[in-house]
Amino acid sequence: MSYLSDVAALARKDLRLELRARDTLPAMLLFVISTLVVFHFTLPQGGSRLAAFGLLWVALVFTALLGLTRAFAAEREGEVLDGLVLAPSDRSAIWLGKAIAMLVFLVAAEAVALPAFALFFDPGIDGRTLLGVALADLGICTVGTLLAGMAAASRARELLLPLLFLPLAIPIVIGGVGTSVAGGGRYVELLVLYDAIFAIICWASFEYVVTE
Q: In 3D, which of 131, 137, 147 has the Cα closest to residue 107?
């Protein structure tokens, strides 16, 4: 229970900081809506369903990347990251708390992005799409939080994080588009397997990442 309370405290801390500063979520909302508007005017009218959902997933991945660049910003700017690492708690709780906070931000952005996407492109968002988004969110937040922690100590973090994250996000995009267009089956299994494998890897390796 102590571990879960540490995770909850860290997640609440990030959410409260965002409520006060309003740095991350407004930027994510503005970015995803602007991206969808641009795609709306660049995609030919009557374009394929596959193209429309491909653009949606590109917008969601880059919106998540924008949020991930701010995942450790408060600790870095306040120079308290070392203190957080030295706190008497399991260091993986830092990763899990950050991932949960990032998941909340991403879901909030998607609560606006998905209706806007349906309005602009009218592709018919159904339960399969929502399932794909939910599974993809878990993968994005678990992997992205670990990579954000790795990049936090680097001077070139704004460049390093996209270079690390985008290649690992390719299976998420494949699974998300496949689930939205072709239905469940193997694409859902791909996302579930991705989430399970990387959740274990990230949970087990975060301690060594922040120690370095």
A: 137
